[in-house]
């Protein structure tokens, strides 16, 4: 029978590990890349967001915030999502950049002539090579990662912070505020 560790013995080092790795990864992103991504998003008539699994959950949160900033944003795969057209922007989150659904989505985006923004931890992946704009999150493996941040935890945590920081940049560029965002906040019952 496995021994259960004392409560809280892993929480603090895991929280510190995740925070430090995510902060270092985001700090390494070239500010010019962020500026290009924000410009691409602001110019697009419509923004489409896609991610599979937990990356998709982060994508949904990003799409919600984009709508709250006054932009037209949709989640790919929803029944009310319109067709991607030339000039639109598609934002795909994929840790490994090799999932079949993400690559298939990228191929459609390229065929239609939309801009493809990719966030991935693997800059040499098939998805990264398809990107018009690439945000590569440097999350190199180490011995502690499986214990403190299993599976895609680092990528997902970094993606959430990245997309929330992009929203802050978009707010400034659009002259928006928390109050104007709140006025577009969905009514939840």
Q: How would you sum up this structure, described in words?
A:
The chain has 189 residues and is α/β, with parallel strands linked by helices. The protein contains eight helices and five strands, in the order ααβαββαβαβααα. The chain has a five-stranded parallel beta sheet, with helices on both faces. Helix 1 (11-27) packs across helix 7 and helix 3 (53-68) runs parallel beside helix 7. It is globular.
Concise description?
With about 190 residues, the chain is of the alpha/beta class. About 50% of the residues lie in helices and about 10% in strands. The protein has a single domain (about 10-175), classed as Glucose-6-phosphate isomerase like protein, domain 1 (Rossmann fold, 3-Layer(aba) Sandwich), CATH 3.40.50.10490.
Any descriptors?
189 residues; alpha/beta; Rossmann fold; 8 helices
Question: Which secondary structure elements does this structure contain, and how are they paired or packed?
Answer:
Blueprint: H1 11-27, H2 31-43, E1 47-51, H3 53-68, E2 73-75, E3 89-93, H4 100-112, E4 115-120, H5 126-130, E5 133-136, H6 145-148, H7 153-174, H8 178-183
Parallel strand pairs: 1-2, 1-3, 3-4, 4-5
Helix pairs in contact: 1-7, 3-7
- Beta-strand portion reads 5-15%
Low-confidence stretches: none
Task: Output the number of helix runs.
Answer: 8
- Name of the CATH superfamily: Glucose-6-phosphate isomerase like protein, domain 1
Q: What is the subunit arrangement here?
A: single chain
The CATH architecture can be given as 3-Layer(aba) Sandwich
| Percentage of residues in helical conformation | 40-55%
Number of domains: 1
User: From the helix content, strand content and strand pairing, which structural class follows?
Assistant: alpha/beta
User: Element order, helices and strands?
Assistant: HHEHEEHEHEHHH
Mean pLDDT: 93
- Tell me the overall shape: globular
CATH topology: Rossmann fold
Largest pleated sheet: 5 strands, parallel
Strand order of the largest sheet: 2-1-3-4-5
Radius of gyration: 18 Å
Distance between the termini: 45 Å
């Amino acid at each position: 029978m496995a021994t259960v560790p004392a409560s809280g013995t892993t929480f603090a080092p895991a929280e510190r590990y995740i925070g430090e790795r995510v902060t270092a990864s985001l700090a390494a992103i070239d500010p010019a890349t962020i500026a290009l991504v924000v410009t691409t998003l602001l110019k697009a008539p419509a923004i489409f967001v896609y991610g599979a699994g937990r990356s998709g959950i982060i994508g949904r949160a990003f799409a919600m915030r984009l709508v709250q900033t006054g932009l037209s944003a949709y989640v790919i795969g929803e029944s009310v999502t319109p067709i991607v057209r030339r000039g639109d922007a598609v934002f795909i989150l994929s840790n490994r950049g090799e999932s079949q659904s993400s690559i298939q989505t990228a191929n459609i985006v390229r065929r239609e002539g939309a801009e493809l923004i990719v966030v991935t931890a693997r800059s040499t992946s098939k998805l990264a090579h398809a990107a018009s704009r690439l945000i590569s999150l440097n999350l190199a493996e180490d011995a502690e990662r499986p214990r403190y941040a299993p599976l895609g935890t680092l990528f997902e945590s970094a993606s959430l912070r990245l997309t929330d920081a992009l929203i802050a940049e978009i707010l400034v560029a659009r002259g928006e505020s928390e109050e104007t965002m709140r006025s577009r906040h969905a009514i939840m019952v």
